[in-house]
Amino acid sequence: xxxxxxxxxxxxxxxxxxxxxxxxxxxxxxxxxxxxxxxxxxxxxxxxxxxxxxxxxxxxxxxxxxxxxxxxxxxxxxxxxxxxxxxxxxxxxxxxxxxxxxxxxxxxxxxxxxxxxxxxxxxxxxxxxxxxxxxxxxxxxxxxxxxxxxxxxxxxxxxxxxxxxxxxxxxxxxxxxxxxxxxxxxxxxxxxxxxxxxxxxxxxxxxxxxxxxxxxxxxxxxxxxxxxxxxxxxxxxxxxxxxxxxxxxxxxxxxxxxxxxxxxxxxxxxxxxxxxxxxxxxxxxxxxxxxxxxxxxxxxxxxxxxxxxxxxxxxxxxxxxxxxxx
Length: 326
Fold this sequence. Notes:
The protein has 326 residues and is an alpha+beta fold. It is built from 15 helices and seven strands.
């Protein structure tokens, strides 16, 4: 089992424990009864020791008006210089579910017929109803604030890798090898750990399952979802001029954030210039020993079961009223 599969199982454990917690809004003054959730921790091969697992969990709070959200996170790595690197479990309180609800709202406003908005089987949920169910977030301590004056965005992590790691080391992370903690080069270690979480997030949130957003890099097309990130890294290391000239980036506060394929200009991956596209296509049907997480049937079935057991995104559920008035 490679490192992506191990952390997919860990994420599923977090989901089983904390799904209800992250969807609630609590009064600011309320103390969360952590024991009620930690009783659900099931000791297994991925956790090992229950107490060790509990000690890796913290409960972060985010204030929203008079309320607060609770976001449990698990320790990935402790940096002596920048603080803890953690993986936050966010589920529907994350950005993926937010974008999904906005997408449904937009379609309703554009009077897309009801029969196109919903699945025709199961509970008849909206197509986007469970997107982001297992959403996660990288908290990289103060590293990216101090080094790049921002968050651990794709662009900032790419710059970090360019400074401190090689293409071959990125390739090893992509292939699922464990990251060795190199005390002689902590910057390299931390950049590669950040890359790993970006790739894990890509594998979880993008694909062909009900909880995933669509991707150009699906298993059925001979890709792994994380090939999207690897394609940009191949471009950056092998053709830096093309990387610098790449035209499609989300901009946040005037700074490049995440790359895309021209969505703001109604373009698609298929429209991409060949000088850019070649960096992604080299991963199509390449290295069949390196698999997407959900090529593992046991993991796939476990996530499907958890998806079937979960309710749809509450923000999308609220749009039922808007749909019925159109």
